[in-house]
What does this fold into?
Amino acid sequence: MTDLEMTKLCAEAMEYEILPYQAGYIFIKRLRRGEQEYKPLHDNAQCFALALWLSMRGTLSFSMRSIIFTVEKTRGTMYWTTPDNEAKRRAIVECVAKIQQSILQPVEP
It folds into this structure.
């Protein structure tokens, strides 16, 4: 999944109005804030909103080198090699995108 696809899935998960966008960018429309570029892979505040989205749907915990997201008895862990913000944002965005994708395209048993 590309960064643009993950970003679009995250915007859909947050129920933002997605505006027609230029190649490589996603713009959203928000109440009282107007149009803005949506880039949670680079914006800490936008990514924090995704972390809150995750925490409302399960258990989210952080350590210096991992993010653990648990839904019911299923456990998924994403690890990275450095404790930098970019890696943390990417792990959160990937997790939200995968959840949103599974909601939009459920796997039949």
In short: Residues 3-104 form one domain. The longest strand covers residues 66-71. The mean pLDDT is 79.
